[in-house]
Amino acid sequence: MSTPDQQAQLLFPPNVQYNASRIYSIKFLSSCFAGAVAGVLGLENSLGFALFILATLLTSACLYVKCKGRPAKYIPGGWWELVNPGQENISSFILVWTLFYGIVHVYD
Amino acid sequence: MSSNAVSLYLDPQIRDWVLFPITVVMILVGILRHYVVLLLQSAPKKLPRAAIREQRALMRSNILRASSANSPLPPSFYQSISQHLSQAFAAGTFLKDGPPKSDAPTTPANPLSDPSQMDGMMAGMKTQMVMMVPQMVIMGWINFFFQGFVLIKLPFPLTLGFKSMLQRGVETPDMDVRWVSSLSWYFLNFFGLNGLYRLILGNDNSADSSRDMTTPFAAAAVAPQGPQAQDYNKLFKAERDNLEFAEGLYSWVGKDIETTVLKKYGRLPDSQ
User: Fold this and answer.
1) B155 neighbors A38 (Cβ within 8 angstroms)
2) Which of B230, B220, B216, B219 is nearest to B111 (CA)?
3) Contact B198/A106, CB-based, under 8 Å?
4) Which structural domain range is residue B167 located in?
5) Is the residue at B38 inside a domain?
6) Has residue A13 been placed in a domain?
7) From residue B241, how far is each of B29, B73, B78 by CA, in Å?
8) Domain tally for chain A?
9) Where do the TM regions start and end (chain B) (predicted)?
10) Could you tell me if B115 lies within 8 Å of chain A, comparing CB atoms?
11) Taking CB atoms and an 8 Å limit, are B192 and A96 in contact across chains?
12) Would the CB atoms of A102 and B210 count as touching at under 8 Å?
C-alpha cells in the first residue's frame, strides 16, 4: 500500500474531514496563544517569528504523539500536513502579536 | 535618522476607542455577512429524478473504477455491475431525455439560455456583491473617522515602500514604518480574523475573506451547473472505454485468500 492513491483510498472521508477541522482549530488556537505570548513578552522582529516557529513545532509534536506516531493513518498527506501552519494562521499570529504588543508595550 | 530608543507615547484612549472598536466591528460584520448570505440563498432547485440519475451514473462508474486494482468486491459482483453499467451507457438508458434518436445532432445546452442555470449564476453574483459591500463600507468608515493619527506599533519591521500605504494620514517623512495608522490595523484584522470565523461559524462560512479573493465570478457559478452543459452521451461513451480498461486492471483483494490465511498461520504443507 505505497502509492498515495491507495493510501488515500484507505481513509474514510467523513473521519478525515473531522480530523482536518479539529487539527485546524488546534493550529489556530496555538498560533493565537503564541501571538499573545510574543506580544506580552515584547518580542520583536526575528525573535517573534522564532517563537512562532517554536510554537508550530511544539504543536506538531503534540499532534504527532496524538496520532500515535502514524500520521498517515489519520490525515492524508503525512507529517507535513501536521507541521504546516497554513497561511491563515500566520496572519492570525501577526494580528494577535501586534494587538498584545500594542496593549502591553506601546500604551501606558 | 530615527533613533530606536525614543518611542512615541500614545494616549490609552486611542486604544479604547479605536483599537478595540475596529476589531469588534469587523468581527460582528463578518458574522452578519455570513448570516445575510445564508438568508439570501435560495433553496437548491429540485432536479427531476431522470436528471439526477444521469449525473449520478457517471459517479457510480467512477467509484467502481477507483478501487478496481485492489477491489473489495468479489469477481461476480464486480463483473455484473461493470457490465450492466457498460450496456446502459451504450444504450443511453441513463440519459435524461431517454435513448438518443439516432440521427439527431446532439448539441449541449447553451448555458446562458437555459433558465435553470441563470438562477445559479445570479446567486453566485449576489453573494459576491454581499461580500464586497461591507468591506467597502468599513474602509470608508475607518478612513473618515480614524484618520490622521498613529494607532499602533508593529513588532516587526517593514520596508520603506509600505510607508505610503500604512501611514496614510500622517505626513512625517522620518517616522519609523513600524508606527502605522488605523487603515493598516484594518488590513491586519481583515487577514487575521478568518481563522476566528472558521472557529465560530464552522468550516463553510461566508465571512471568510480568503474565499473572496480566490473565487472569480465564473468558478462559483460553474460548479453546480457545469455537468448540465456537457453532452452526457459522449461522456457515457468515454466512460465505457474506461470501464473496460478498469476491468483489465481488476483484482480482488480476497483472491487466493484461503492460501494466504493458511500460510499466515503456518498450516500449509510444504508440498507446493
Assistant:
1) yes
2) B230
3) no
4) 12-260
5) yes
6) no
7) 52, 20, 16
8) 1
9) 17-40, 130-152, 183-201
10) no
11) yes
12) no
Interface contact flag, B67 A101, Cβ < 8 Å: no
Return the C-alpha cell found at A46. Answer: 526575528
ipTM, two decimals, is: 0.82
**What is the residue whose three cell numbers read 473565487?**
B215
Note whether residue A6 is domain-resident.
no
Set of cell numbers at residue B241:
472505454
Q: What is the per-residue pLDDT across A28-62, written as a single tens digit (0 to 9) for each? A: 999 999 999 999 988 888 888 899 999 999 988 88
CA distance A51 to B156: 13
Structural domain containing residue A76: 29-107
- B143 lies in some domain: yes
Does the residue B123 lie in any domain? yes
Task: Compare all CA atoms of chain A with the CA of B210 and give the residue at the minimum distance.
Answer: A88
Surface of A (54-83) touching B: CB under 8 A: none
**Helix, strand or coil, per DSSP, at residue B152:** strand
Dihedral sign (CA B9, B13, B14, B15): positive
Q: How do residues B158-178 score in pLDDT, each as one tens digit?
A: 877 777 777 777 777 777 778
| Mutation choice for A interface testing from B70, B152, B186 by most A CBs within 10 A | B152
Give the model confidence (pLDDT) of B125-137 as tens digits.
Answer: 777 777 788 888 8
Could you tell me the CA-to-CA distances from B246 to B65, B67, B70, B122 in Å, in that order?
A: 6, 9, 11, 40
Domains held by chain B: number: 1
d(CA B46, CA B67): 31
What residues are paired with B150 via a beta bridge?
B181
Whole-prediction pTM value? 0.73
Query: Least CB-CB distance to B195: which of A21, A89, A101?
Result: A89
Whether the Cβ atoms of residue A106 and residue A43 lie closer than 8 Å to each other: no
